Amino acid sequence: MDLLNNLALGFSIALSPYTLVLAVIGCFVGTIIGALPGLGPSNGVALLIPISFSMGFDAISALVLLTSVYYGAMYGGRISSILLNIPGDEPAMMTTLDGYPMARQGKAGEALVVSGVASFVGAFLATVGLMLMAPWLARVAFKFGPAEYFALYMLAFCTLGGVGSNNQAKSAMAACLGLGIAMIGLDKTTNMQRFTFGNMHLFDGIDFLVAIVGLFAVSEVFHFIETHGKNSAIGVKLGKVLIPWKMLNDTKGAMLRGSGIGFLAGILPGAGASLGSFLAYMGEKSISRDKDSFGKGNPNGVAAPEAGNNAAAGGALIPMLTLGVPGSGTTAVLLALLLTLNITPGPLLFTERPDVVWSLIAALLIANVMLLIMNVPMVKVFVRILSVPSYILLPGVTMIAFVGIYSLTGSSFDMMLMVAFGVLGYVCRKLDIPTVPIILGILLGNAMEDNMRRAMILSDGDWTYLFSSPIAISFWIAAVLGFIAPIFLRRFLKKPPLPTTDED
Amino acid sequence: MKTTMFKVLGTSALLSALTAGSAFATECIAPANPGGGWDFTCRQIANIMYEIKAIDAPMQVTNMAGGGGGVAFSAVVADHNEDPDVIVAASSATTTRLAQNAFAGMTADQVRFVGAIGADPGVIVVAKDSPFQSLSDMVEAIKADPGSVAFAGGSAVGGFDHMKPLQIMKAAGFDDITKIKYIGVDGGADAITQTVGGFTQAMTGDMSEIVGFIKSGDVRALAVLTEERVPGFDDIPTAREQGFDVVAVNWRGVYVPKGISDDQFNAWAERLKAVAESDQWKAAMAENGLAPFTKVGGDFQSWVDGVIADTVVLSKEIGVIQ
Hints:
The complex is a heterodimer.
Chain A: H1 2-14, H2 17-35, H3 41-54, H4 59-84, H5 93-137, H6 146-158, H7 168-182, E1 185-186, E2 193-194, H8 208-227, H9 245-250, H10 252-267, H11 272-287, H12 299-315, H13 317-323, H14 329-340, H15 349-352, H16 354-385, H17 390-409, H18 412-430, H19 436-458, H20 470-492
Antiparallel strand pairs in A: 1-2
Chain B: H1 2-20, E1 26-30, H2 37-51, E2 59-63, H3 70-79, E3 86-91, H4 92-99, E4 111-127, H5 135-144, E5 150-153, H6 160-171, E6 181-184, H7 188-196, E7 202-206, H8 207-216, E8 219-224, E9 249-257, H9 262-277, H10 279-287, E10 295-296, H11 298-318
Helix pairs in contact in B: 4-11
C-alpha cells in the first residue's frame, strides 16, 4: 500500500498539464538527439541542463524534462542503428548487428517497431524494478569488488568471439586492437602517460564515440566513394510499415530475458547500459536454436539488446539514486543535474526526499508511455527520413558525423581522429576483420584493466585473489564455457556461410 | 521528406550553437564535463554573481573537458592570456597536477590564482563494523603491517585523495610511505562502496562525498583534515586533535589569465569575495557539505604556491615525479 501511496504522490506532482507538455517536448527532442550519430543520451541531457536552468524551471519540471530527454534518446539511439548502421550512442551498438541487416532486407519498419516495443518493455520493467527494489538492490553493489568486476569483463570478452564475424581469430585480433587503443591516455593506477606522445588531447584517451562514428559512419563514406554509390550500404528500402504482431509475439521471450539481463547489468556501478545490451544479445544468441541467423537480421537480435539497454538505463538509476554512484555516462549527467538542484543522492534519498524520488519515477513512467505512443506511429516518418537517395543522404550523414563529434568534444583534433578511424574501418572491411570487437575493446578495456590492477594492489600481486569469491568464480566458469563451447560445437555444425552484409 | 531531414540537421546545428557560444559578457570555464566539482563551482559562481549584481549580464558557463583540466589550462594560456572576462574553475586537483607536471610542461605561474570561496574538507572513513575506533588505531595497524590496510579514493595514484593518508602517516613518523596500499576508483561514492563491501579497509575522500553514508550509518569518519571541527559534523574529530598535524582541504576557487592588469585581477577578487559572503553561496555550501574557506587575492596566490611546493616534495617521495 505504501508503494501505491508513494506512486500517487509522485503522479500528483508530475502529472500536470504543464509537466506533460514538457514531457512531450523532452521525448521528441530526446528521440532526435538519440538518432543523431554521436549525440546520445549523455550529451543530450548535458546540453539541455543549462537551458533548463536559464528557463528557470523548478526541480520537478527540470527532472521531468530531462528524464524524458534521457529515455527519448535511449529510444532514438536505435533509429540510426537500424537505418544507417551507425549507433547513436554506445549501448545502441548491438542493435546494429541484426537491425541493419533487417533494414537491408526491406524490413526496416518491422525492425523499428520491434525495437520500439522492446525499448518500452525493457524500460518499463526496469522502472517497475526500480520502484519495487531500489533500496534493497543497492546492496548488490557492495558485493562487487575488483576481482568480481574483472571476472565480469572477462566473461564479456570470452563470449565476444562470435560477434560480427564468423572467424574467431579475426574477432580476437580486432578485440586486441581495441584493447590496445584503450591503453592510450593517462594510466589511472600510476598516473603515467601511455602512447600520448605529449599530445594533451590524448591524455584522456580516445573518446569512444569518436571511434565508433569513424569506424561505422566515415568508413561507410569511403566505401561509398569507392563503389560510386553502387552497393553502398547507406540508404534502405522502404517496405510497408505495419505493426508486425507475429514478430512481436515471437520476440517477447527475447524482450523479457533481455530486460532481466540488462537490468542486472545496469545495477552494477560502472558496468552500465553498454554491457547490458551486449550481454543481453550474447545471452539470446547462446540460447537460440538458430544461432547462424544472428547477425543476418534475426528479430530476436534486435529485441534483446534494445530491451537490455533500456532496462540497463533504468537499472543504472538505482546505484545513482541510492549510492550516488553513476552506472553510466548518462546517469553521471543526471547526477550532476540532481546536485545542481541541491539534491544529494545517497542512501537516505528515498526517505529524506520522497517527493523527488517518486516524481522522478512517475516522470519515467509517463515518458515511457509517451515514447511508445510517439514511436510506433511515427516509425514511417523516420524510415522516410533515411530512405532518400544515397547521393543526398551521404553528405548529410557526413555532416551529422562531423557536427555530432564537434559538438561533443569541441575539438578539431577529434574530427581528424574520427577520419583516421574511418580509414581503419575501411581497411578492416577490406580484410574482412569485424569492427565491433575493436569498439568493445576500447569501451571495456580501461575498466577491465583498472579492476585487474586494483585487484593486484589489494592482494600484493597474488593472482588467486581473482578467484576468491563465489561471484567471481561463477563468472569465470561462465567465461570459460563461453569461450570453449563454440570450439567444440563447431565440429558438429557445418561451417556457417559469410554474413550477407559482406557480399560486395 | 526533405523538411524533416532539415529539421534533424537544424536541431543538431542549434544544439551545437548553444554550446559553442553566444553573446555573454563574462565566461567561466569548467575544465571538465558537466557534473563534477569544477562544473559546480562555475555554475554556482555564474548564478550568484548575476543574482547579487556583481556582474551586469549573465555569465556563460563553458565546459572544456580534457587532460584533467590541462586542455582548458593550455587554452587559457595560449588564447586568452589577456582576456579580462574569463575565469576558470580550479581546485586542489589543479594544483596537484601542476605540481606533478601533468599539464605537458605548463606551470602554475602561467596563470593567476584569484581565490577560493569554500573547501571540501578531507576525511578518512571506515565501514561501520571496522575494528578501528580512532585514527591512532589505524596508524598503529599500518605501522605494524603496512599491507594490512588498503585505502580507496576517487583520484588516481599520486592524486589528492592518495596524498591524504600519506601525509597522516608522515605526520605519525612513518616514512616508508610507498608500502601503503591505495587504489584509485571512479569517484568518492565508488570508493565508499568498495570500503563498505570490505574490499578496502578505509576510504580517503572529501566530506561532500560521504555525507549521505555518514547519516545512514554505513560508514564512520575517523578524522576530518581541517584546522577545526566542521560545523554540522561536530562529532567527527580532526586529525590534528588526535595528534596528527595534517590539514588537507579540497578548495573550490578560480584562476584567471596571467596577462590581465592588477585592477582587473582585483575586480575579480572583489566579486569572488562578494559571492563568498552571499547567503546563496552559504546555502549551497551547507547543501553540498562544503566548509567555509575564503582566501582571495595575493593572500591566496602565496598559499597556492606553498601547497604546490609541498606536493612536489611528497610526489617525489612516492615516485610519481622524478
